[in-house]
Design brief:
Blueprint: E1 5-11, E2 16-19, E3 25-38, E4 44-54, H1 55-64, E5 70-83, E6 89-102, H2 106-111, E7 121-122, E8 125-126
Parallel strand pairs: 4-6
Antiparallel strand pairs: 1-3, 1-5, 2-3, 3-4, 5-6, 7-8
Length: 161
């Protein structure tokens, strides 16, 4: 069976780091993820996904992430069932994180004024400001001569498809 989730969203609160009785670190956080389509009244719809990281991954998330930061999570979806204090059956569905990484650079986050209530991405892809002239990568030209590679002819006559 296949159970793999890949998510990109903003943390809705600061991560919460706890430790189990056996001193295993566990970190809980929640991601806000916009849907691609708008609702029937034109409003943007957002899903809030609970995530859990364990061990060193939990310590990493607690140390380096905070509310509003864009995170990329790779993990698996799992459910937990329990009874609350009143005897009601409860179910929680969350992503158990295998990988958590930054969705934007610190420089990009700071240049956009931090998290100012906007998501900073459109249709699921992060918006990047245009680079300044000093930041444009230099052109790269292949050296002439001395190469083991030969130019291919445009003749596709031997190709069987």
């Amino acid at each position: 069976m296949l159970n793999k989730a890949i998510l990109m969203g903003r943390l809705t609160r600061d991560p919460e780091l706890r430790h189990t009785q056996s001193n295993m670190a566990v970190c809980s956080f929640s991601l806000a993820i916009d849907r691609d389509r708008k609702g029937p009244n034109g409003e943007r719809q957002t899903d809030f996904i609970d995530c859990v990281a364990w061990g060193r991954q939990a310590e990493f998330v607690a140390q380096w992430f905070q509310k509003g930061m864009l995170a990329i999570v790779v993990g698996r979806i799992q459910s937990r069932r329990w009874q609350d204090q009143n005897g009601n059956n409860r179910t929680a569905i969350e992503v158990n994180c295998d990988e958590v990484s930054f969705g934007e650079t610190k420089k990009s986050r700071e240049s956009n004024g931090g998290y100012a209530g906007g998501y900073g991405y459109d249709n699921g892809s992060q918006m990047r400001p245009e680079p300044a002239a000093s930041q444009v990568a230099p052109a790269f030209d292949l050296p002439s001569g001395g190469s083991d590679f030969a130019e291919l002819a445009d003749d596709d006559g031997d190709v069987p498809f």
